[in-house]
Amino acid sequence: MIKLGSHVSMSGKEMLLASAKEAAAYDANTFMVYTGAPQNTKRKDISALQIEPAWEYMKSHNIREFVVHAPYIINLANSVNPEIYSLAVEFLALEIERTKAMGSHVLILHPGSHVGAGVKAGIDRITQGLNDVLNADSCYIALETMAGKGSEIGRSFEELAEIYDKVIHNEKLRVCLDLCHLNDAGYDVRNDFDGVIDRFDKLIGKQNAAVIHVNDSKNKCGAAKDRHANIGQGTIGLAALRYAVHHPAFPDLPKILETPYIPSPENPDKKVPPYKEEIQMLR
Length: 283
Prior knowledge:
Helix 3 (82-102) crosses helix 4 (119-133) and helix 4 packs across helix 5 (157-166). The protein is built from nine helices and twelve strands. The protein has helices spanning 16-25, 51-60, 82-102, 119-133, 157-166, 179-185, 193-203, 238-245, 275-282; strands at residues 3-7, 30-33, 67-69, 106-109, 140-144, 173-178, 209-214, 216-217, 228-229, 254-257, 262-263, 271-272.
């Protein structure tokens, strides 16, 4: 069965158990969590995450897999500020251990931004950081494809392939294919997803994809802006997104929605998650 889910929250006393319950409420059979707020490094102790009760609940609700997303504050590509880089390496190492303790095999990571130092300097810094934290016992780190805004690294398969080539334990590297980001970076997800995947396969290998982020885009192809749209309400469109979700190259990958909340039908001033309806549309 296709694995479809969404980003869900992990907070309160139930933590991961609450995440699993939220996913089940959307009729999802996978999900993605951040271990805390994406903008900071404040985290609860692993013992407070309610991991065992969460897994008991997941197994009884046909959820066998979930993925973790590293916080945005991690910027391995920063060669300008040594303190920011050191924080990124140290916290990424902790996130790897937290991901493993939670029972997930995949930690999704934005490669980072070179903040004006240039792509080469950014890639060199990323590979240095990954070489510092990755070993044979690590979970997989899935580098996310980026839209190309600002000084982001990872806007092309070529940039990700260069990182692969320079990382010692690259058997622990994977890729998260974000469909909105691919579109905004100039890949024709709408009209030629087969061609996009062929290009990815030649440069990195389709076996190295670990997760697909299923997002429509508010922007035309190549806009380099990164603005997610709800399923079927953007420039990629429902047909193309369904094609990608059901693509035979990726039958077993978790497909994760990160689409915007929408106004509640009962109270337009209140925003509610669209995930149950969108999962149904895609399934």
